[in-house]
Amino acid sequence: MSNNTYESDLPFDRLDSRRRRELAFKQYQERLHIPTEALQKLTDAFIEQLELGLREKQRSSLLMLPTMVDVLPQGQERGEYYSIDSGGKNIRLLYTRLGKDKHTVEEEKVEVSRVPVELHKVPVEELFDYIAKRMISWSETQGCAIAERQRPVLGFCCSFPVDHHALDAGSLIQWSKGFENPGGVGADPAKLLREAFQRQGVPRVHINALLNDTVATLAAARYLDGPDAIGSVIMGTGTNACYIEQLGNITKWMPRYRARTPDMVVNIEWPGFAAPELPVLEEDRALDAESNNPGQQQFEKMTAGLYTGDIARRLLLSLAEDGELFSGAVPERLRRMGAFTTTLMNLAAEDATPDLARVGAVLEEAFGLPAVQTKPDIRREVRQVCVLVRERSARLIAAMIAGILRHLHRDRPRTAGGELPRTVVAVDGGVFVRHADYRAEVLAGVRDILGDAVADRFSLKVVEAGSPFGAACVAAAADSYMRVAGGSLNFRPPVHKLPAVGQSR
Predict the structure, then answer these.
(1) Residues 105, 99: contact at Cβ < 8 Å?
(2) Would you call 78 helix, strand, or coil by DSSP?
(3) Residues 196 and 298 placed together within one structural domain of the fold
(4) CATH number of domain containing 347
(5) Do the beta carbons of residue 164 and residue 250 sit within 8 Å?
(6) What average pLDDT does this structure show over 139-146?
(7) Can you give 117-143 as a three-state secondary structure string?
(8) Is residue 179 part of a domain?
(9) What domain count does the chain have?
(10) pTM score, two decimals?
(11) 162 — phi, psi (to 5°)?
(12) What are residue 468's phi and psi, to 5 degrees?
């Protein structure tokens, strides 16, 4: 190379193979890394759509669904409560006794069991009969028989899409996750469960709360952490979030709704978030085109556990086809959608062994590449791709969380000269729960966007399997409220005078 010729001036194919790979990976790193300035613009776009979604229907990519959960636990609820969490192939049953001291649980019993496959398509009454029978028989074996209680209070966490009409009522919008039970769509899940208990000879069960897993996770943290818990994020196979909003800011719906409190939990439904600021790659578009719902839920496809492993696979495939990985040989299984799961991607990303032996094992399991044939530099490059994909997911989630905090003014003191509020966001889902590095990357992203002062007062609280406990907590809060108000779930006190959008609480 002459003194006046630079490497960047040479044709790509004239560089040696090692240097070509280094330059190729640098390009991918630049495409996958989201700098702070871009994150801040993405946060601005999210806030704009969030606030638009509160005011109008159909003009925002965020659904911003009112959940009718306007009574949340305060931590001083006490008594015995039950809950059922049913939203997929498993059901969780819970009995809890909330203690006399604030934020205490004196006793808790939980069961997790599979719903038999043969019940996925039977008439909906048969499915709910099974759920009610399981609760009755399980509670008997645990010494907390629901059938023996004078007035058992139960919260129902139904994580299928539901159009909520009240805290204890709603309509099933559609089945998902392999369920196709006739008679379910359009029916009220809480009513179906009440009627199932009646058919089993237990008519006194009082189902006073119907909610989904994001709201239940928030409620669990609210009971344990009090008012500092302002929202929750689910990050597992899929992703979603909710937060506590002022009712006066939700102007698109039910203007005559008479609430019990000035706040309501809003289900953001952010899987479908779309904006020009979202850094969509060619690999993201290819995955979307091959998915079972093309053109939908772009944000979820860039972040959630069902998809991020396949994004990494597509990046590795592009590098292999360009001849910059695996010596130009493309393993056949590398071309298969689903061959590289997010679990395998995380195993590779977290490999800290000297020779990256786990990466070698992952490549052998996913693509049939014998571990003895993958050189250390190849393993390092595979690990780097996995780290970059995961980091992008975490920073995108961080931008959304930062947007919630900014919308709620949690990035500024409540009073002039005061200190910043402490803020807790509850989190659940396998990606959060099992991977501390991922949580750290989310926290780092929030710090980049909102600064050290806000980040030092912010925390993510893991509430693993918090849905059944949170559902019981909402049931307890509603029960406590009714006892004080002296009414029923249909009781509505005078409408609170609420501040308009942009005014502080």
Answers:
(1) yes
(2) coil
(3) no
(4) 3.40.367.20
(5) no
(6) 96
(7) HHHCCCCHHHHHHHHHHHHHHHHHHCC
(8) yes
(9) 2
(10) 0.86
(11) -130, 135
(12) -65, -40
